[in-house]
Amino acid sequence: MNPLLDSLQPYPFEKLRALFKGVTPPAGLPHISFGIGEPKHPTPTLIRDAVVASLDGLASYPATLGSEALRVAIARWVTWRYALPPVDPATQVLPVAGSREALFALAQTVIDPARTAGGEPAIVLCPNPFYQIYEGAALLAGAQPYFANSDPARNFACDYAAIPADIWARTQLLYVCSPGNPTGAVLTLDDWRELFALSDRYGFVIASDECYSEIYFDEAQPPLGALEAAHKLGRGFERLVMLSSLSKRSNVPGMRSGFVAGDAAILKQFLLYRTYHGAALSTVYQTASIAAWSDETHVRENRAKYVQKFSTVTPMLAEVLDVRLPDAAFYLWANVERTGLADDEFARRLYADYNVTVLPGSYLARTAHDANPGRGFIRIALVADVDECTEGARRIVEFCRGLKG
């Protein structure tokens, strides 16, 4: 077996199952899950209809490159959404089977484990807390993950200026998540200016994970994207790709449909890798994806539901926890230290007493630079309908007030 598999850590939800082992929550309280970031809003009718209408496509092998019609639809959306010059659907866009698959596969394409600095292994630099796929992708590509801790005093932005020059010299890939999972923080134009300067100096690739980009709270202020930042700063897309998905935007996580866009040279090699990797998107879902990327009405309706939930739940939880509205995404990143409980103990006791699941923040981070930046936090995924989210918040408030009693 590949010995690198032994370096992988248990996924956060495996840790959560172990934490809850032996716990029996109250049978009289229906379970409410704020743990998994899986959208629960109904899939839009236009997408369901497109799936049904294209079922004949099951008789054909899908092309890894995707159909020209899908690439055109994605290129048009990227150009419109980020106010860019026309994006070339032939060279600057590649449909993928969900952003998770692409985030992992990209590291296998980009990393050259034989190219080292001073004999030290290549580095994949990740935010901390982070999406665990980044770490697994780095390890299985033969690289070493290096974590940039988020700082609550900087709106949970990573302090890239604190990373030593010798680490940057070994970095071949930088994962960025904006809006962030789990904090919801969005990188500013100044943040991007700093990262582009570092990429120019050290030659690493930037992969911007933007799967939460369409969940935000002010229609007039969508989150800044990586390609948009590059254009505003007068650059091209050299050493830069962004990844997006329909899962959160259009409530179709089961379709596993997304795309990668940006540097044409990287995408050319990424297509070569994926041709052998065998992760082509079904032609049925390619057709449905065209319908999804071509419509914004359902996306605005989806955002309105999140606005309602966050405006209802956030003030409730702020009475007992240190929490505020994020920049974007559908998570609340709540500090539980005022309850006197550690984040994992909080999660276990909340489940045991009120049958509500939240994810301990320490499970989403690694101890790096003498700190685990997720410790003392919980991630609350507001993915269910407003009534269920409100009831879950009510139970959390009651639980916290019971602790003080």
TrEMBL record:
Transmembrane segments: none annotated. The keyword Zinc does not apply. InterPro entries: Aminotransferase_I/II_large, DapC_beta/gammaproteobac, LL-DAP_aminotransferase, PyrdxlP-dep_Trfase, PyrdxlP-dep_Trfase_major, PyrdxlP-dep_Trfase_small. It is an enzyme of class 2 (transferase). Coiled coil: none annotated. Keywords: Aminotransferase, Transferase. GO terms for molecular function: succinyldiaminopimelate transaminase activity. Residues 32-395 form the Aminotransferase class I/classII large domain. Its cofactor is pyridoxal 5'-phosphate. The keyword S-adenosyl-L-methionine does not apply. Its EC number is 2.6.1.17. NCBIfam families: DapC_gpp (TIGR03538). This is Succinyldiaminopimelate transaminase.
